[in-house]
Fold these 4 entries.
Entry 1:
Amino acid sequence: MTATSASGTPSSADEITIVHLVRHGEVANPGGVLYGRIPGFHLSEDGQTMAKAAADFMTGRDITVLRSSPLDRARETAAPIAAELGLPVEIDDRLIEPWNKFEGLTVGVGDGSLRSPKYWIHLRNPFLPSWGEPYRAVADRVLAAAADAARAARGHEAVCVSHQLPIWVTRRQVEGRRLWHDPRRRQCALGSVTSLTFSGGRVIGVSYAEPSGSAGAQVAGA
């Protein structure tokens, strides 16, 4: 979709470009650890089905750019999308999971590593958060990656495969909401698609879909 100037030529400033932020599918994690950036965590059988559903969701769309976090689960989610679209997967390190001081440990309210007082100092500021990469830094880098993908796909669509927290705080940032939040209330299911509509270099709309769950039904963002 392209606007035209008074001279009748396309105005690139008003071109509509959509960037789909895809969360990876379910991961095989029998130990229940916070795997974060640890290599070697791959999609489960259900996760592979979710990745295929995401690929099916992209069928017939005008997608010209496909990028992914470097982590195994993201690359494995991108693979069927690449096969469906006939596109190479470009790796963008800015799409990676945030670093976290509890990586490799089991965590939970009242159990796992959180029962040990030596870890409590990392919980002192949930608004930053103090246990990992600051929300602002995560949102800034992922939004920059999405904007670069939008420029590369100008006037078309792009796919960026990432992770739950990066996608969620990026959405909150573009919607003008505070970045700290209750993790239990994130609208970013496994295999979901959060789509950012760009025009003139800025995000003008957000939509959400769950190809693996609710038959692709979309919920408009604020």
Entry 2:
Amino acid sequence: MVIISAPWIVPIDIPVIQDGGIVVADGRIIDIGKRDDLVRSYPQSPETSYSCVLMPGLVNAHMHLELSHLQNSIEPLPNQKFTDWIDALITLRATNEYSREKIVETFTAALHDQYNSGVVLIGDTGNEDYEELRRLGDDFQPKVLRMLEHLGPNREACRIALEKLTQLDTRISVTGHAPYSTAPELLLEIKTRCNQLQHIFSIHTCESREEREFLRTGSGCFRDFLEKKNSWDGVFSFSESGFAGTIEYFDHLGLLDDKTLLVHCVHVSESELPLIKERGARICLCPGSNKFLDVGLAPVEQMVALGLLPALGSDSPASNKVTDIWREMQLLVKSHPNLEHSAILAMATLGGAKALRHEADVGCLSVGKKAKFIHVSSASLKRCSDVNQLIKELVSGGKPTEVEWV
């Protein structure tokens, strides 16, 4: 048993504690409060003191680690359609000369960067089953929840994907890509498997304006893209009846529940947000990627007002020049100045833990949580004289000068 103390403790789920302490035993938090009170309550326990702020590790709820080698490779062009950028990415992946060893090397380096920035948990989706990512155990920092992403834009692609699903080890999590690239039949099978195995179902949702057009009418750039790829065969049944938006479509399929993670939610309407809350689904925002691709701003204020605490994700290194959750918080401050800084910090920690269903272990500093948290320090943080200044600096100041695991 040990007491870990610091001038500031930021638990997230309760108010900030000045001159606080955390009591740790057997890898878990067993008490938290004012340092002097804890010293009196645990007189035989040694104390380790830190100089600035103790807080939970960050959570990056949406990444594509296997694309780390493509960072800064594709710049979107002015007035470019969303599908033009997708097409460029597909072409680059098909023609790139990186060896498998090089790809593993780059995503391993990306993992170390996440660890060094204070990330405790990552939700990662990818198209290839890299054993190197599946071998990462609970003791590896950060922990990676790997989800194998499936596309099926036509009947033949669905048949192949469904056949592969039956052959997969049940320890491997799977998910769909997006409503315009994974047909309803395949989405249903994937979601059924996720529910049976208690896996997260994470899917790109409402990322672009064009997606809503596709769901409503079955036309637009996504239809043109599939036809260009000879992948349009009527498998998307909504091309005849139409849906008001992606959330209505997902609900029609029965995809929305408390194990569903809706990534992006930029072009989600105010009328769709209550349905997300009612079904218990979670949201992950990716401000850096959305800014890079110029797809717009998510209605974050409305989400928070409804009690929908989103997670934060850096998305693909191919669509975000800096895959850093500290920067994602900064971008939210700039684009949504009316948001409370404390809410943004909660998104980067507890919101991500809940989205990935790991709130029993990480996301906040409370009794029973794993003793996996960080100490952060900088000259600016040390100058903070009250709680509001401290939270503002943590959220808007960018990555602190010092980030270390306790």
Entry 3:
Amino acid sequence: MPAFTAAELAERLQGRVVGDPTVTLTGFAPADSAGPGDLTWAETPQHLSRAEAGAAAAILVATDATSRKTLIRVPNARLAFARVLPWFYPEPDFAPGIHPTAVVAASARVDPTAHIGPLCVVGERVQVGPRVVLMAGDHVGDDCTLGEETRLFPGVTLYAGTRVGRRVRLHAGVVVGSDGFGYVLDGGVHRKVPQVGHVVIEDDVELGANVTVDRGALGATVIGRGTKVDNLVQIAHNVVIGQHCLLVSQSGIAGSTRLGDYVTVAGQAGIVGHLRIGDRAVIAAQSGVTHHIPPGGVWLGSPARPAPQMKRLFVLMERLPEMARRLAQLEKELAALKAAPGPADPAVR
């Protein structure tokens, strides 16, 4: 396990130490379970109180708070947390080479620094770049390319012609390049439209477990640089996703839709095909998008509307049962008024 002094971590994080700069830190743990020698972090006063009550040796903070413990003050505690974890818990190294049980085509070009794990299949004319890791049971189809330092976790399938950039991470069960869902009704049967395109995954993309990305019917399905995709997301044929987007679990994007840069699609949201989603738009959880979305702003509901408008509708929907009861009472009172004899009625003369 790596060990650092508080001063060493502060220097790496461009922070400063308040307290003992020589304290040795050998791990990182949540405030409630941290032990002696552990570093923890506190983003709010409540977090800091819990950290002080625990056994952690030092605390990452982003405020001018004081404590009896050693503090490492940084501009952004959450960002520092993300940077520190890999230092304490580095990813395992994989020795270069090809496992004896792997099947690698003679025409494939595998960099000598790459790792090809047990039971992997690497097809014809595949190019595997420097320090690429294929863990157990990965299948890389013909004519695929994998850029340097890309990592495929166990059980990943890349269909033929998939192009993967540098430093990409594909988690277990990811399928890239399967056929898009394209059929045309012909004489009462659904005739398949051949899907002859491919998929391009640009640099620094991460796809969570069991994500599926369909190949283009013609041309490419593209996932832009720096985009991060959560588990169980479906990306259909000829979708183009911009740079640095976030797609959260169980969301789905139908064919030929284009997302701009820095778009967020929250959990279980669905976007129909052939739409344009503008830069930095946010699609809230369980929303159904059926029309183009301009850049910026938060969209909510099904069909999705701007969040302020949809929130007003939600308030009205909550009031509908009471409004219905009041309407029924008013209708009853109105009927009674109509039935009552008036002054000019012959019955009262």
Entry 4:
Amino acid sequence: MKTVRKLVYTTVIRHVALVTLAFLALFFFIDFVDQAKHIGRRGYTVLDVVWTCLLMQGGHFYNLFPIALLIGAILALARMAQTSEFTILRTGGLGPGRALMLLGGLGVSAAMLGALAGNWLVPLAEAELATHRAQFSRNPGLKLGDGGTWLREQRVDAGGQRRVVTVNVGSASSHGTFERVRIYEFDQNGRLLRRLTADSAHVRAAGSGGTAGSVWQLQGVRDTRWRNDVTMAATDLSQPLGTQLVEDMKLPQLDWASSLTPLVVSASVLPPDTMSAWDLRRYANHLSLNAQAAQKYEMAFWQKSLYPLVCLVMVGLSLPFAYLHARSGGMSLKIFGGIVLGISFVLVNHIASHLGLLHQWQPWLATTVPSLLYLLLSLGAFAWLVRYR
């Protein structure tokens, strides 16, 4: 069994590696041509183009690996069927159950590799790519749109009164440093109590691991407070009853304590691709606790969590090709059909995710159903070939 495992694994891994490298080389060339038009603008050099393209390969690998796994496994198993190698293995005692377990172990290894890339390689590469691109933009800093990005938290003051704090960040110049910051504090009745505006802010964790809140070090601060609970004396005829007192101060710097951790702030300004499954789960929980829309990040969490299942589905779709008979003809057409079937699975998976966001489906349901359906389809085809062919 050890020799059989070595033969099958070596053949499949070699074909998968060649297909993956071919895809990455193709996308590297396309990215290089696309980025080359920016050479010479704001100090953008050829080395910057190469570095940008290399950083983009992490995301390409994560997205293309299931397809490369399917194509490589189909080519490897179809070749073994054409050369009668797999037939000899079956004659030597390799039954359907053992063959399924054999490729299942390969699928588990591929799933672990994909999970490692999605939760470690891709977040690092995408975060570095966003920072690298921001250095050469017209306005240095990460682009957050015309209105910036908005954050929200709920807190309780010393008197036991609930407060709602809304934070607007205009741009991000680097990791943990933001510009054009506006902070609004409302009471439980929705009345504005305080407004802080700052030219820049640096967010650092207040506790170990960034889980115990954070401190915003504000620079160039303007602090405006509205005292809704103070009413001018009725004897002062120059002021009507209910007049609000406004305090306006300008400070060079100010430390503002918040429960918005560096993780939450970074997650709000960077795309979901830059986050691991664990970070996506924590950020989605933060949004839910503060009555904000979290389904986008919940969908991304389930997609990244179920990525190993996608790899298993791809390996399962390739298994029936080991039981095809090359002498019956049409082998190339069958291989092409299998590849198209795998691509259709990727399309159905993406369509289900978008429909889930549009129709407010449960995120785990929208991401799980396509994988289970195609996995059952591949196992059904495998069982039919074993029984009737």
